[in-house]
Amino acid sequence: MLRKLRHEPTVSPMRMNVLVTGGAGFIGSHLCDRLVQSGYHVVCVDNLYTGSVENIRPLLNHPAFTFIEHDIREPLEIAGSVQRIFNLACPASPPHYQRDPIGTMRTCVLGVYNMLELAKEKGARILQASTSEIYGDPEVHPQRESYVGHVNATGPRACYDEGKRAAEALFFDYQRVHGVQIKVARIFNTYGPRMMENDGRVVSNFIVQALRGDAITIYGEGSQTRSFCYVDDLVEGLIRLMESGREITGPINLGNPIEVTVEEIARRILAQTHSQSTLRHLPLPQDDPKRRKPSIERAFSALGWKPRVDLDHGLKATIGYFALKLFSSDAERSAPRRAKAPQRATALRSLQQGAPA
Length: 357
Ligand code: NAD
Ligand code: UDP
Hints:
The radius of gyration is 20 Å and the shape is globular. Strand 2, helix 3 and strand 3 form a beta-alpha-beta unit. The longest helix has 24 residues, at about 310-335. By secondary structure, it is an alpha/beta fold. It has helices at about 1-5, 25-35, 55, 95-100, 100-120, 160-180, 200-210, 230-240, 260-275, 295-305, 310-335, 340-355, and strands at about 15-20, 40-45, 65-70, 85, 125-130, 180-185, 190, 215-220, 225, 230, 250-255, 260, 280. Uridine-5'-diphosphate binds near residues 205 and 226.
């Protein structure tokens, strides 16, 4: 009974204005879907660095949804009230966050500072999408929230790992100094439909390679492990955390504790796609964590949350998404050329016109 009461929103969803930064990205767009379906008014903020308007296209004409193209490294002015801020804006895939490492660090620190200032100004509750990278290449297994981590502060992953650590520090200081209501979710590897084809993360890479019949690129021996959470489970965890009692700040691990090797992921994807792709071993990137698995005891006891979708079902849905996407883009390429660019420009123009002042 106590747990049920804890999860009940303090304001009716119908009256809540929720800001989702990074809302046009992979996880953010699923979160926007769920929030709109649940009766919230959602303002999605994104600079489209790794996100895409395609991910939110079905929401664009919804009266409870607004898109603002904006970079959170700049202060954001929003008219009217905001009750909740989900801060997801940040590239998440190693090749993308390393493409502009200084930009990534600025998003993690300046961007988070701007969003915390907004939360302070509006009296809003704010949730940070933190990460298992906080633990670096962990020496403790599985990883509990009390583990302080093993991060290389000067390596190529540091822009993200140390940036996200600084973001957590800022969150807790805004709570202590300004009384801002904070929530920190440490998200472990999440996968599902709407990952980008060229995202660079393991699940999307392997599925695209398998469907195209290209070699599967295994970095290192493939014996390193990850624990993969399906995006619907993750979104449920994020919403439960946001609507948990004020005393629950986190950090709370959100992830699926079933651990698999990278080679095992490749084999499962090959089996499900009936692909003839071969395995190709490439060098392991620097500082690539060897093992990763969340302890989710805290999420279960505080939020009553645990993942429900098993890996094979999640992979099936993700493979279905990519098969459709690759098949339709191949079909488009072979069809007579249509006037695509003007259509895209019109769509973007109407988006900008729809954005609030
Ligand atoms: P994603 O790259 O698909 O989404 C990130 C979104 O943020 C994109 O739409 C991008 O355009 C936007 N963005 C980036 N920098 C921005 C900026 N400065 N201003 C405004 N928008 C900006 O990644 P994702 O997998 O959906 O990850 C979402 C969040 O969850 C990230 O903060 C990431 O660190 C965190 N996370 C994800 C995972 C995972 O496995 N997917 C794991 C741990 C943490
Ligand atoms: N990986 C791989 N081949 C790829 C992409 C990734 O073997 O084409 C490995 C990568 O080295 C890491 C694991 O898969 O050990 C997960 O990588 P991802 O980039 O998905 O996430 P992260 O390293 O951030 O956990």
